[in-house]
Amino acid sequence: MDQDKQRLSIEAARLYYLSDYSQMDIASKLGVSRPTVSRLLQYAKEQGYVRIDISDPLEDLNELVSRLKRKYELETALVCYSPVNEYKEIQKNISKAAADYLHEIVQDADIIGVTWGRTMHAVALSLQQKQVRGVEVVQLKGGLSHSHVNTYAAETVNLFASAYHTIARYLPLPVIFDSVALKEMVEKDRHIHRIIELGRQANIAIFTVGTVNDDALLFQLGYFNDAEKQLLQDKGIGDICSRFFDAEGKLCSEEINNRTVGIDLPDLRHKEKSILVAGGQRKIEAIRGALVGKYANILVTDQFTAQALL
């Protein structure tokens, strides 16, 4: 009798858990009543014939958050779930997470410094409207280029300003000048100086990292000659606000950095909230360098990137 019950319980369990049969279908197939099937399934679990493991992605994410915060001395880490390890899917999920986080933290009189690029544009598109007063939104780096490649610079800062019911403060300049002298002369303009200073005063900065791969956005915009591009690829691993750094987070070209318009990397370390939004296999080295350099105290990423960073 026990062997018959054992055999029936295992068969019922196989049909129910592996073949997605309903209890009614199993009853018909085995020639027993539906209540008997229910008892057989319960018996199979009690005897250990069936073991059910539940993988909770949220529980795993919480562990990743704790480990990231410890390893990189972060104030906050937001690790969002991405169903697949593909860049576009990751970008979609982390951009939404960053936008939701901003909705929580932005308050009256905040100054929000914003960069541009594909990820930042995705964040901007995900922003929710929030009724706040006295908020300022300012570009952290120049937003003009000589290329037809779209940087979404103006659209991004406009979407941020619209979400928080304010006006956008632009840096209507190339992000990198041909010479240090020209850049310094332009920065002396009263209006330009005021915008750059507002970026330094921002208590919230939100940005991503670029890579030094051939398809990197800054390389597509025509700012660098071949020798400069080679130098950045040899010494650097990525950029924040168009300022290139190495694996230790240190600038990899003082000369190029001195021609760059916008916030300096060390200024990011002093922000109340310095938010890095980045993920994907191709950006891991750049993200790690940015975290080693302490340019962000808040990281928004996905579970695949988080695991690689650890």
Automatic annotation (TrEMBL):
Residues 22-51 form the HTH marR-type domain. Keywords: DNA-binding, Transcription, Transcription regulation. It comes from the Bacteria. Residues 57-310 form the Sugar-binding domain. InterPro entries: HTH_MarR-typ (IPR000835), NagB/RpiA_transferase-like (IPR037171), RNA_pol_sigma_r3/r4-like (IPR013324), SorC_transcr_regulators (IPR051054), Sugar-bd_dom_put (IPR007324). The keyword DNA-binding applies. The keyword Transmembrane does not apply. Belongs to the SorC transcriptional regulatory family. This is Deoxyribonucleoside regulator. It comes from Paenibacillus aceti.
